[in-house]
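Thread: sanity check for a docking pose with NAP

Original post by kr_44:
Hi all, I'm comparing my docking run against an independent structure prediction. Below are the sequence and the ligand SMILES. Could someone generate the full complex and paste the structure tokens? I mainly care about where the ligand ends up relative to the chain.
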Amino acid sequence: MRDNGAIAVFGATGQQGGAVVDALLARRARVRALVRTPESDRAQALAARGVELAAVRIDDPASTVAALEAVDAFYFMTPEADNLEEVEEEVRVGAALVDAAAAARVPHVVFNSVFGADRFTGVPHHDSKHRIEEHLKKSGLRATMVRPAAFMENFATVMAPSLEDGTIVVRMPLPDDVPLKMVSIKDIGRVAAALLLGTADVPGGAVEVVGDEPTGPRIAAAFGAHAGLPSRYEALPLSVLRNDLDEAMFRQFAESSESPADLAAVKAVEPDVLDLAGWIRSTGWTAPADRARS
Ligand SMILES: NC(=O)c1ccc[n+]([C@@H]2O[C@H](COP(=O)([O-])OP(=O)(O)OC[C@H]3O[C@@H](n4cnc5c(N)ncnc54)[C@H](OP(=O)(O)O)[C@@H]3O)[C@@H](O)[C@H]2O)c1
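Reply from moderator J.T.:
Ran it for you. Here is the predicted complex with NAP included:
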């Protein structure tokens, strides 16, 4: 590593990149955020915490190469894709960032990929990450793949449990007996930060980041236990999903559940990785208003 160089972060104003910045700052690292809108509230909030801002435009490679000059390491994620056009855009963004890192001769690149992206799985917004991983491998750069499972934070938003007639209810398009691999975004940040700072290494240059893998009934029970209430899980059909990409993803979740996660590999990097019960406690989650009684 070059002495006291910065760690560059793409996506710092978002969820995962934000968690990486939090973990890096907690370890007193110098952080440079590559942002498209330095004047945005989120970018300015980073600047107020001591993060350097570098303005980049993906379609202006010189801006990205300049932002990566003399950094010790570079973390990047790629934006959400909801359709096939956005999947191609995601690959374009990822490949452009890899090319810029190669041009700037960055010593170590950490790519925030996704669970299972070591191969093509038929899930378009995961296969995009596999293509970026392959591009990164071919670049000759020293690279580490951080492959997170589903975010536990989804249970605070799109998959939030409800309270119905005094019972906590969790519904997902996943059969009762299928474990769902999941991790907290905070832990993705901690794992990536340890790899960026070189305080941890992972065998084979990749780590599947999972903190827990409970089935639907166990997920419901974890929320119920926290609230001191009974719980119920209801498996929904795949047809409830908003698009084909998510349908392919939930099919893949069921397939990948056949091989258990390597929790020991994650704990070797982040010993305190949260399981679902720990994540629920850490958020201070409380049961929502009762639908049946409101
Ligand atoms: N949801 C899950 O359970 C899950 C699990 C594993 C992996 N993933 C993957 O995680 C990714 C999403 O991560 P996230 O939730 O951390 O994203 P996010 O919160 O939506 O943040 C996206 C970040 O990317 C930046 N960005 C997007 N396009 C840009 C561009 N053209 N130039 C510069 N910056 C750009 C945004 O900056 P601005 O502030 O300027 O917008 C923001 O910082 C997706 O690829 C998804 O497939 C999701």
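The CA atoms of residues 194 and 200 lie 5 Å apart. Hope that helps with the comparison, let us know if your pose agrees.
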